[in-house]
Design goal:
The chain contains 5 helices and 5 strands; from the N terminus they run ααββαβββαα. The protein has 211 residues and is of the alpha+beta class. It folds into 2 domains: 74 residues, FAD/NAD(P)-binding domain (3-Layer(bba) Sandwich), CATH 3.50.50.60; 118 residues, FAD/NAD-linked reductase, C-terminal dimerisation domain (Enolase-like, domain 1), CATH 3.30.390. A 5-stranded antiparallel β-sheet has the order 1-2-5-4-3. Strand 1 and strand 2 form a beta hairpin. It comes from Anhinga anhinga. Pfam families: Pyr_redox_2, Pyr_redox_dim. GO terms for molecular function: flavin adenine dinucleotide binding; glutathione-disulfide reductase (NADPH) activity.
Length: 211
């Protein structure tokens, strides 16, 4: 049984039309600038109500803090809606930070990207003899920006923990060269990101035969 639970934006009965705040009629969400400002200069919106933004509680909290600091504390720091680490807590976890490959191609052009990927085998899977080519790791790099990592994706045990750690490095401008220079902790799942050498464009086999 598959159940998909969604949330509706309850914006149509709170008087926004009286002050001229525009909403997306298709989903009821509110378009804003990169500073969470609506089309009405003195009205701001944050959180799940934003059109085209992530529906994640930590994102709303961060955006709210930064908005308050800009309005009342003299700050100019905006919320980063791109490099947001997130995880799908399925039995085999999926974690990501930055752009999906399809989105990166749209924004940068396929010719300006290098995608590194690998299957990997967690150590704890060796005893039960689980399939050694189920877990997957991928990074998307911008050739025009010193191979900076603009997309990070991992499918495997504890993907949320792995992604949270790498997210800070991505915010700091992580590049493929820096990953290559990082000494991995053996045998961990995160180590795979320090040893990647096969690109998707090469078409080489990425199957693994051991942890």
């Amino acid at each position: 049984v598959l159940i998909a639970v969604g949330r509706d934006a309850c914006t149509r009965n709170i008087g926004l039309e009286k002050i001229g705040v525009k909403i997306n009629e298709k989903n009821g969400k509110i378009p804003v600038t990169d500073e969470e400002q609506t089309n009405v200069p003195y009205v701001y919106a944050i959180g799940d109500i934003l059109d085209g933004k992530l529906e994640l509680t930590p994102v709303a909290i961060q955006a709210g803090k930064l908005l308050a600091r800009r309005l009342y504390g003299g700050s100019s720091t905006k919320c980063d809606y791109i490099n947001v680490p997130t995880t799908v807590f399925t039995p085999l976890e999926y974690g990501s930070c930055g752009l999906a490959e399809e989105r990166a191609i749209e924004e940068y052009g396929k010719q300006n990207l290098e995608v590194y990927h690998s299957l990997f085998w967690p150590l704890e899977w060796t005893v039960p003899g689980r399939d050694n080519n189920t877990c997957y790791a991928k990074i998307i790099c911008s050739k025009r920006d010193n191979n900076r990592v603009i997309g990070f994706h991992v499918l495997g045990p504890n993907a949320g923990e792995v992604t949270q750690g790498f997210a800070a490095a991505i915010k700091c401008g992580l590049t493929k060269e820096l990953l290559d220079e990082t000494i991995g902790i053996h045998p961990t799942c995160g180590e795979v990101f320090t040893t990647m050498d096969i690109t998707k464009s090469s078409g080489q086999d990425i199957t693994q035969r051991g942890c």
